[in-house]
Hints:
The chain has 720 residues and is an alpha/beta fold. Among the domains are: 69-243 and 253-271, no CATH class; 286-360 and 397-627, no CATH class. Helices cover 44% and strands 15% of the residues. The chain has helices at residues 3-16, 49-65, 79-97, 101-114, 130-140, 153-160, 165-192, 255-265, 293-318, 329-363, 416-432, 450-454, 482-499, 520-537, 600-614, 628-639, 643-656, 674-678, 691-719, and strands at 21-25, 31-33, 38-42, 277-280, 290-291, 366-373, 388-393, 400-407, 437-443, 464-465, 471-477, 542-549, 557-562, 571-576, 581-585, 590-593, 618-626, 658-664, 666-673. Strands 5-11-9-8-12-17-19-18 form an eight-stranded mixed sheet, sandwiched between helices. It has a three-stranded mixed sheet with strand order 1-3-2, covered by helices on one side. Strand 13 (557-562) and strand 14 (571-576) form a beta hairpin. The longest helix is centred in the middle third of the chain and has 35 residues, at 329-363. The chain is elongated, with a radius of gyration of 37 Å. It starts with a helix and ends with a helix.
Amino acid sequence: MTVKHEIKSQLAKLLATEDLIVEHKQVETAQFNVHTRVLTLPNWDRASDNVYTALVSHEVGHALYTPDRDWWKELKIPHSFVNIVEDVRIEKLMKRRYAGIAKTFFRGYNELSDNDFFEVKDADINDFSLADRVNLFYKIGAWVDVPFSISEKQILNLIENVETFDDTLSAAEALYNLCKKELEKKQEEQESNPECEQDSPTGTEGGGDFSSDAGDDSEFTVPDSGTNGTMEDGVGGTDSIPVGNGTNSVEPQVDTVKALEDAIKGLNSSIHGRENVYIELPKLDLKKTIVSNETIHNGIREYWELEDVEYKQNMIDYGFGNPDKDRFEIVDREYTKFKRDAQKEVNYLVKEFECKKSADAYARATTAKTGILDTTKLHTYKYNEDLFKKISVVPDGKNHGLIFILDWSGSMAHVMMDTIKQLYNLIWFCKKVNIPFDVYAFTNCYPRDVKEMILRYEKKEGVALVEDTFSLLNLFTSKTKAKELETQLLNIFRIANTFHSEWHVEYRVPIGLNLSGTPLNETLITLHTLIPHFQKENNLQKVQCVILTDGEGSPLRYSKEVDRHWEDSLYLGSANVGEHCVIRNRRTGHNYSCYGLGYFSDVTNLLLKDLRQSFPNTNFIGFRILSGRDAGQFVRQQVGYDEKVYEPIMKDWKKNKSFSIRNVGYNTYFGLSSSALNNDSEFEVQQDATKAQIKRAFVKSLNNKKMNKKILGEFVELVA
């Protein structure tokens, strides 16, 4: 879907004043399903903006005013006659509803006339049938002189005054009957004078200047309205309804309707191209998607208790090692040291947060008079009217909450510990300033009840696929008591240590907590349900969503019905989201075209864009852990080849080993060097170190602290 298609889709929704579903597909003509309220439009990629807008406005008119009635069951006349009159009615009503749309139709039909869409350029209008001339008059009559006799103008008056669809049917039937009688009269003249057969082809109404007898009032009768029928999909144009009393009856035709339809089909250059597929995101059942905090940590405790029994028994059975040895001694000591050292950064974050919050409150403060006299100003009453005490009114700040999403994929192994440390800094910050938070890790390895997972949403054609193995692990939550939270932080620190440890680990990762694939996109889909749930549960005004990852999400798939010849019914299979796909959000009315996708991250960025438009009061913040060699390619993916944007970011990266990118998928995307994070920021040297070694260690320590403070400072600013 191009930008033009998206704009016209929004235009259609605005004109219809309802949440129409607008789809651009490889179809020849526009269609409107009155039951599903789906307006299907051709791509019309060859149409100018004026023509495109006019066509869209016309189809919306049908969607608004053409009712769902099977009118042809009782009224046996061709569709084209009803279309002529109904087009007049719905465009009149659209002009009445939107004053400015008259110019839209004027400009659009002007271009259609200039490009001879009605095939009248080399023809004599006088030779056209009455129905054709009526059609030309109401569409391009401003640029083409269309003649009518005095009696024929009565049908124009009738058509101009139609207000209801019943009026349309009555006027259409009157127009058809008049054309039918004139055609029969012309045939009689041809039969009585065979030489005239060559003057007018069979099957068309005789033209020329009509005499008063040709349109005599005795021939022009208006039937009663109130027929029960409908225009199929609100639009028609083919004479598919059987009419007439005999098989040899010749029916009047409307050539200009067919000419216009054929010409409009030519505006779509890619009818035979790949069809657009519209994909909607499922609403997941959180209870069947999230593994609770209690379940996870009870499982960890039980697993290690059993493992501890096994470990001690092996020590006794095989006679080596100390059965009473603490298997976690080394990693626990490392955690204690990290927690002590991290308090400096946490306190820095708290200080920055309080300062920025106070500055913001001061900026929004107002001064109001109390109504109480200020006695210190009474002596100035002769020249000063401001004698009342004043008070500063500081508005309450918004309640904030934080959702953290942790990438629990295999590629995170070498940076997991560094990422966990950054996460813990933010958790301790939230605890100190009383900000509610939840931390989730995405995985597709946690053992779940298969039946439970399958039922988390309804799988059907055109819905994004969330694999049955996908889960969100609620690792931490602010609802946990301080002592229990401390135990949980230590447990996950131990697990992170196993993925890339510098020493021998004497314990195993509990079942379900090994690293897995990267269901990042599935997580973003879940956030549509998770964010409002978290906001409501904690009574929050604003939510910040922080995603810590080192890579791209796995390709997103969608459910697709497949006809397998060996089965009686369609099989619900799946396919990858690709360039031909359009992600649709019915709630916001936005469509997101996947055309031109070049990286896996492009789908992720579309999903983030959808989230930002769905939750405008939520900041989506990305933390990306990068190696030095990956930074350049990553930045290119995000900002393209605009050197004015690319160069400052890379300059910041080389200097600080970090950068921030604004409004590319995330509101802010932070890039952090994995090597810099891995370096200990503490100033440590050997006792016999030289001056040069001391200097290098000191500079290294300052640089690492500088990087953390810069990034975390920007983060705090977003939160505050």
